[in-house]
Amino acid sequence: MMTTLPGPDGQERCRWCAATPAYTHYHDHEWGYPVADDRRLFEKLCLEGFQSGLSWLTILNKRENFRAAFQGFDIDRVAAFGDADVQRLLQDAGIVRHRGKIEAAIHNARCAQELIAREGSIAAYVWRHEAPDDAGDGATVRATSRASVAMSKDLKKRGWKFVGPTTVYAFMQAMGLVNDHAQGCVHRAKAAQARADFTPPV
């Protein structure tokens, strides 16, 4: 059961975000709000891949370091990374130095270029996987959904790595494709309104 706790301002928020001020800020300003920017979507897919097996707080605390190391997650720049860049990143203590995840991020940038060429944008592709009847109810804790399983399967078919159903579901939660703010969280209604005001790209 998803529950809430009062935040610094006394308003109820998802219980998980009370752990640290960094989580509270992320929860209030980003998590669950719709995103249509390809760079941000690509960044989040990469960072969720790096988060696999770790806590999101670890990645969130290193996010600015990741952005510097991966040149702002500019898709074309990351796609052009070579062996020297892999070695550079493996020496960067500011990020998660996991060769498989680093190489996957570079590989996925190339896959993103192909996806954009075929679909028009990452945003257009991603938002086609939104499933209103599969939306979070704000009460049930879950790690995957029918939509995340479908997107994961399709991304893997397109060659992407580190995009399992759980990783994709976390991405969908964060980027506003599903509203998983808890019932009673002050941001559940705000996220719902943001989604109602949002026009999915085509």
UniProtKB/TrEMBL annotation:
Q: Name one GO molecular function term.
A: DNA-3-methyladenine glycosylase activity
Say if the entry is tagged with keyword Magnesium: no
Keyword GTP-binding found: no
* Superkingdom in the source lineage: Bacteria
User: Which Pfam families does the entry link to?
Assistant: Adenine_glyco (PF03352)
InterPro entries, per database record? Adenine_glyco (IPR005019), DNA-3mA_glycosylase (IPR052891), DNA_glycosylase (IPR011257)
GO BP field? base-excision repair
For this UniProt record, give its keywords in alphabetical order, as a comma-separated list: Metal-binding, Zinc
Q: Which residues form a coiled coil?
A: none
Q: Which residues bind Zn(2+)?
A: C14, H27, H181, C185
Q: Which PANTHER family match?
A: DNA-3-METHYLADENINE GLYCOSYLASE 1, DNA-3-METHYLADENINE GLYCOSYLASE I
What is the recorded name of this protein?
A: 3-methyladenine DNA glycosylase
Organism expressing this protein natively: Pseudacidovorax intermedius
**What lineage does the source organism belong to?**
Bacteria, Pseudomonadati, Pseudomonadota, Betaproteobacteria, Burkholderiales
